[in-house]
Amino acid sequence: MLRHLRPTDLADFQAYRGDPEVGRWQGWQPQTDARALAFLEEMAAGPLFQPGTWTQLGIADDLTGQLIGDLGVHISADGREAEFGFSLARAAQGRGLASAAVRAAIALVFEQTAVRHIHAQTDARNAACIRLLERLGATRIATVATEFRGEPCTELRYLLASRPG
Questions:
Q1: Quick one: which of 20, 26, 87, 112 has the fewest CB in 10 Å?
Q2: What is the overall mean pLDDT for the chain?
Q3: Nearest-CA neighbor of 144 among 153, 132, 135?
Q4: Which residues form the N-acetyltransferase domain (predicted)?
Q5: DSSP character for 90?
Q6: What percent of the chain has pLDDT over 90?
Q7: What is the pLDDT of residues 19-70, one digit of tens each?
Q8: 136 dihedral zone (left: phi>0; alpha: psi -120 to 50; beta)
């Protein structure tokens, strides 16, 4: 289930975002409770899918509503492209929850915006993310030599979805 992040998600948010394995390939870094709470408050109150900004949605357990991850959506300034990024608590991985969340987010973005194409990218060493993207039918469109956290790396860029029609 996708939903707005909430200030009451703080403990769950900090638990998975503080896990070095969950954050290994992410652009974010763990943060203090005060900064995390401010972020959660901002996401709870903010509008969804504003061009030029990131929206972070909560991925929650369908039965309990407990936060188990988050999915970021960046809408380009012209509103035609979106980029997705996602994080999921280790205990929630391997059960199809990330796939379900990405599919739901694709539908939501196409329903609520004029976005034409949705992309995702990952470090070539992130085998789990590559498997997920390929399972979702994403097409690799570029391989780029770049730098991540001060180290050279190869980034794989994917076309995740295009608007039907």
A1: 20
A2: 95
A3: 153
A4: 1-161
A5: G
A6: 90
A7: 999 999 898 899 999 999 999 999 999 899 999 999 999 999 988 999 999 9
A8: alpha
Task: State how far the Cα of 113 lies from the Cα of 161, in Å rounded to an integer.
Answer: 14
Number of domains the chain contains: 1
Q: What is the pLDDT of residue 17?
A: 97
Q: CA–CA distance from 140 to each of 56, 87, 119, 131, 144 (Å)?
A: 24, 20, 10, 12, 11
The residue with tokens 């900064």 is: 35
CATH number of the domain that residue 80 is part of: 3.40.630.30
- Written as six digits, the tokens of 10 are 């703080």
CA-wise closest residue to 82 among 54, 45, 40: 54
As given in the structure block, the two tokens for residue 60 are 């929650």
**Residue 59 structure tokens:** 């991925």
For residue 69, give both structure tokens: 């991850």
Beta pairing, strands 139-148 & 151-162:
antiparallel
